[in-house]
Automatic annotation (TrEMBL):
Cross-referenced CDD domains: Ser_Recombinase
Cited Pfam families: Resolvase
Resolvase/invertase-type recombinase catalytic domain boundaries: 20-159
InterPro entries reported in the protein's UniProt record: Resolv_N (IPR006119), Resolvase-like_N_sf (IPR036162), SSR_resolvase (IPR050639)
Gene Ontology molecular function: DNA binding; DNA strand exchange activity
Annotated protein name in UniProt: Transposon Tn3 resolvase
Length: 159
């Protein structure tokens, strides 16, 4: 009795689709070292996205703004709009602190992105927003960044 092998063709589904990838880069001041950091982030993520054959480069969203509030950050607003419009599947980011230093703002944005099936990868922390264990971690880290910002602000105001 000979064995017969049946070949099942692969389905064309989401796994075959190239990801639409963007990066968000932010620094909070206009100091020369911060400007250089922003330029470095932009160059790094442009190269990283363009070098991956499974990714389509969408855009780099970059700004020099404080991370304490979302409403005054034009580039993060443009990124969120592009995500709502279905232009982005994956957002690369140097660190959670680049996304924001207000815990509520960060969680609300991540919740909206999750509902839009957009994943955020935070490189420094090596975490993706779609990991079920990550919400607790993100809450703790974002709260720490928020407290750090509050302490810096108080120190500046005391001068």
């Amino acid at each position: 009795m000979s064995k017969q092998i049946t070949t099942i063709p692969a389905r064309q589904d989401q796994s075959d689709k190239r990801l639409k990838v963007a990066a968000y880069c932010r620094v909070s001041t206009e100091h020369e070292e911060q400007r250089q950091s922003l330029k470095s982030q932009i160059a790094y993520y442009t190269q990283k996205i363009c070098d991956n054959p499974d990714w389509d480069f969408v855009d780099i969203y970059a700004e020099q703004e404080s991370g304490t509030r979302v409403y005054n950050r034009d580039e993060v607003q443009r990124l969120m709009k592009d995500c709502r419009d279905g232009k982005v599947d994956l957002i690369l980011m140097k660190s959670l602190s680049r996304f924001g230093r207000n815990t509520l703002d960060v969680l609300l944005m991540l919740d909206e992105l999750s509902k839009l099936n957009v994943v955020v990868y935070f490189e420094t922390e090596d975490i993706c927003s779609n990991d079920s264990r990550v919400k607790k971690y993100i809450t703790m880290i974002a709260a720490a960044y928020q407290e750090e910002s509050r302490q810096k602000s108080e120190a500046i105001n005391k001068r």
